[in-house]
């Protein structure tokens, strides 16, 4: 018993470090004192599920704790279920990269078990994430994958759920007709089968879609039905969503008091549950309602809070709209300097989308702002003259000037810090836009490939698409990362591997796996971009040529630092170059590109060939801007 207690205390200590010094609450502590690890996992999992709708942050910690125990004690039957729930937590906390990471891990495990039902369930959640990211092509792809599996299983409830997910994507595309079509199919089946939670979701989507089409009466009918079901079962997060949707209809109908009541109740639930994206949406809506009512003092705190929340969720268009409302509100409150400041931010970030808004109001605010600035400058000059006269007569004036200089230095430091924050925000926005532009280019290449019949040309287009995806992934990591100037190569290379497996249709199969041996290394964007392109070419060659005719195998990707140098190696256990005539007879563009990029890094590359497999090893000096975490 003593030995078991010591193990438990040691594990509690390790978990405190794992959860950033947040100790488990009493219920978790009691569970951790149990001797049976399987019982610990089940009880922690059940506890996390029970609070997932009310306290997502705590649920996340408990899921991670059960995940750690399951992996440490080798309980593979629990690991994919916990990974699925960690994916859900990431989705609810506006962390799409985390959500996709855990969903894909769970998906791989369930596919190894040939568990089609769970596979379809995860496809539905991945559909939701891509819909949130605005990548509607991928969202529809995964939504229809889920629908196909449910149809194969002849599962009417699953078919209805997939139809509901597809309806949500069509609604996000402002396609109200298709959204209503798919949501109605789901609603009818769920009504007949009495699947109330799913029914409430389909009813909400129908309400949102009918609002989009302008039929407010039908919209309210479906939203009231959705809200009634969710209140009946105390689905807190879902209640907040229904209230937000119904408030949107009331706002369209100019029933502001009713809209405010729903928005404020939705906000309370969203804040308690820790759902950033919903909290931001509702906070901004409340501020907008107050401006529509002409109550600008009441609107101001909500709009200021929304600005902070939007920086966490990083949704550019909503940020532009909020800046415009802040400019309008400060202008109505006669605070023209603040009004002009936020109008400038909205104008800069919105670019061409806001050109029409640069009108007489903007000029008027600017004139009043400049007038106030001139008056302030005159006052400061008069004050300085007075201080100079005092300096001539008294020694104490010197001390006064030193104090004033200190205050000015403090203000200058504060101003520089604020400018640094704004520059960081703008840098993130630039990376976001570059990533979006590369996504558009990738989509154009994908569309073009559908009309190309020549196999060689088709492969060239697909390889170009993968190169664009590799570059786009860099910018995605930069705008979503903590430091917008450096790239976490560990995370980036894993995501690049997943993307390439998906591109070759191998992500959901067991034919080829990629094993990663990656040190925690951070690089500047230029170096990371070159390495990403090199890895893209080497992995592509292995995936294309190493495993023909369905042959299974493994690829090892390693990236580490040794003796002040960075070492990169990609090797496979495939058939080798001697048995791959396609590789020997090809254009070798990819390998030439690797050599050119290696020279750009001033590195040495070496090809290692054996009877079984192919390996490329590169070594280069660390350059300015690289840093490794300890």
TrEMBL record:
Residues 1-19 form the signal peptide. InterPro entries: HATPase_C_sf, HATPase_dom, Sig_transdc_His_kin_sub2_dim/P, TPR-like_helical_dom_sf, TPR_rpt. It catalyses: ATP + protein L-histidine = ADP + protein N-phospho-L-histidine. SMART domains: HATPase_c, TPR. The chain crosses the membrane at residues 392-413. It holds the Pfam family HisKA_2. Its EC number is 2.7.13.3. Residues 526-626 form the Histidine kinase/HSP90-like ATPase domain. Keywords: ATP-binding, Kinase, Membrane, Nucleotide-binding, Phosphoprotein, Signal, Transferase, Transmembrane, Transmembrane helix. This is histidine kinase. It comes from Runella salmonicolor.
